[in-house]
Design goal:
339 residues
């Protein structure tokens, strides 16, 4: 592609360069007027270490703010603009100003507190990768003093820009959901952070219960979860609670409930009846779902291990019911511990 074919926006490269040259002169002229406003405002109200006021010729005390407001009204320039240009002039005495560097760049770099560091900085512009020359741009000056650049480039700047745009919770939620649907993005989130996010999102009990039920249907997840002593203890407690609720349901709905109630029974008896009833009811609903389904080897291993535990537990119950002995051998103890 020839240079004449290159376009910037709607103009040719040559015309663009003519416009840049024209505007560079205009910006230089504007910088002169900005310095003039700042210098004259500084002359009227020199910068002081701790604010305050100075007497005028009529012995009246006129505050800095009043003087600058009067000046802004008389020259038709906003007060904050006058104030900012005065401050910039105070940071850049005429001998320290750099020809060819706009007033706006001087204004940004004026945020550098130390005077020597400030002057050294303006003489050491960064490399502009687009032009291959060292020069100050508004964004590079902002980066130098820690301000936000208008066009983010580094990952940190882009993250900061996203945070600024997503201050609204609804926007942030939609952005997070969209990004996490990208597998390559989700994969880069550290495991601990992902776990924390899941925990925070599932603070509502029905959401947590649904998520836990879905995850525990994955055999590898269930196996690893049950390796955690605390998790296993909570599951056991949940099973006991489920048994209690099943017993109450049995008492309310089962045709066997009236004759059972007519006999004095211990709490243990009622809990066992309820647990057995709950197990049978749950199994009768779940097992038919396995019709024509071929389970993976690891799934069959997990289920066979659980069936062995159930079978051993049933034999233990038979022993307790028939003999009153509740002791168990070591093999049964290991099965019930999930070992």
């Amino acid at each position: 592609m020839s240079e004449t074919d290159i376009k910037v926006g709607n103009v040719s490269q040559q015309r663009y360069e003519e416009i840049v040259a024209e505007l560079t002169g205009a910006v230089a002229a504007e910088s002169v007027s900005r310095w003039l406003v700042g210098d004259r405002a500084l002359e009227i109200e020199p910068l002081r270490r701790h604010g305050g006021s100075l007497p005028n010729g009529d012995d009246d005390l006129v505050t800095v703010e009043e003087s600058l407001h009067r000046l802004s009204e008389d020259i038709g320039v906003p007060y904050n603009t006058v104030k900012k240009r005065r401050w910039t002039s105070s940071r850049w005495p005429s001998a320290r100003r750099r020809r060819g560097v706009s007033h706006y760049i001087h204004q940004i770099l004026a945020a550098i507190r130390d005077e020597e560091e400030r002057c050294a900085a303006i003489d050491s512009p960064p490399l502009d990768e687009r032009t291959g020359r060292r020069r100050w741009t508004p964004d590079s000056a902002c980066r130098k003093v820690g301000y936000r650049a208008s066009r983010p480039q580094t990952p940190t700047e882009k993250v900061r820009a996203i945070h600024d745009l997503a201050v609204d919770d609804r926007v942030a939620a939609q952005v997070a959901a969209d990004l996490l649907h990208r597998p390559e993005v989700a994969a880069q989130v550290p495991a601990q952070a992902r776990s924390r996010v899941i925990r925070d999102l599932a603070h509502e009990e029905h959401v947590a219960a649904s998520a836990a039920a879905d995850l525990l249907q994955r055999p590898d997840v269930a196996f690893k979860a049950m390796s955690d002593d605390r998790a296993r203890q909570m599951v056991n407690r949940a099973q006991v609670e489920h048994g209690r609720q099943a017993r109450e349901h049995f008492e309310r709905t089962s045709p066997m409930a009236p004759p059972v109630k007519r006999v004095e029974h211990t709490m243990e008896f009622l809990e066992l009846v309820g647990a057995c009833h709950a197990f049978v009811a749950r199994a009768s609903r779940t097992v038919p779902g396995l019709r024509d389904r071929v389970l993976a080897e690891d799934e069959r291993t997990v289920l066979h291990a659980n069936v062995s535990s159930v079978r051993a537990t049933l034999e233990w119950i038979d022993q307790a019911v028939d003999t009153g002995r509740v002791d168990m051998d070591e093999e049964l103890a290991r099965l019930l511990r999930g070992e």
